[in-house]
Amino acid sequence: MIQIAPSILSADFARLAAEVKRVEDAGADWLHIDVMDGHFVPNLTVGPALVQSLRKHVRIPFDVHLMIEAPERFVPEFVKAGADLVTIHWEATPHVHRVIQLIKSLGVRAGVALNPATSGEELAYLFDDLDVVLVMTVNPGFGGQKFIPAVVPKIRGLQRELARRSSSCLIEVDGGINSETAPIVAEAGAGILVAGAAVFAAEDPAQALHALRRAAEGAGPPI
Ligand SMILES: O=C(CO)[C@@H](O)[C@H](O)COP(=O)(O)O
Ligand SMILES: [Fe+2]
Question: At which positions is substrate bound (predicted)?
């Protein structure tokens, strides 16, 4: 079953609680919260205070994508604020394993995100500790960008390796996901699809979620 995680980056921040409740009611599985620090990526977004405020209005789990340098500095605050899954970038700290241990020790799920130019081969050392590998299908920093097809073989390679190890770790994809790209990533092995513009910019989010799910599930099981 494909899971969909709408990204708040394409929501109207002045009406955030109402917009998020709308996608929750429409059947979203996760809420994807993009955190940016202006260093790791050339953009700024939100911090733990916003996560804590939203937590009072939303029941679906929070998927917090940290696009920040040295994420270990802020992991405990995001968990305290209500994150259910915390994903850090492979490129953002020299001590990825230590940060994964920190996230797990706080009782939530842990993910590692890979920029388009990162192969992810070293991730094999972490698979036993990881709940999610997030494959960026755009360069991180902005919503509404175009999907990078060259990343698809990486999704397929990770899927094969995870299947070989009978791992329960899921592959999440993030960036430029819509009804055209959803079948491509689902066929390659993605189990969680992040979708910002495709859901929050749609007139009818329920219809947008349905279209994404149908497109992805029509792709058949991963090879
Ligand atoms: O992490 C990011 C961007 O850095 C994403 O979560 C985007 O916000 C997804 O938006 P769309 O590409 O689906 O509009
Ligand atoms: Fe994201």
Answer: 7, 65, 141-144, 174-176
Tell which one of 4, 7, 43, 89 to mutate to probe ligand 1, the residue whose CB is within 8 A of the most ligand atoms: 7
Question: In this model, does residue 222 exceed pLDDT 70?
Answer: no
pLDDT tens digits along 41-52: 999 999 999 999
ipTM of the complex in this document: 0.99
pTM, two decimals, is 0.97
- Please compute the mean of the pLDDT values over residues 77-106 and round it to a whole number: 98
pLDDT tens digits, one per residue of 107-130: 999 999 999 999 999 999 999 999
Domain hosting 40: range is 3-217
Pick the closest to residue 22 from 60, 50, 65, 53 (CA basis).
60
Would you say how long the chain is, in residues?
223
Both structure tokens of 19: 């917009």
Find, among 66, 69, 52, 63, the residue nearest to 23 by Cα. 63
Let me know: does 45 contact 16? Beta carbons within 8 Å: no
Q: What is the CATH number of the domain that holds 200?
A: 3.20.20.70
Determine, yes or no, domain membership for 140: yes
- Tell me, yes or no, whether 222 lies in a domain: no
**Ligand 1: residues whose CB is within 6 Å?**
7, 9-10, 32, 34, 65, 67, 138, 140-145, 174-177, 194-198
CB 31 within 8 A of CB 8: yes
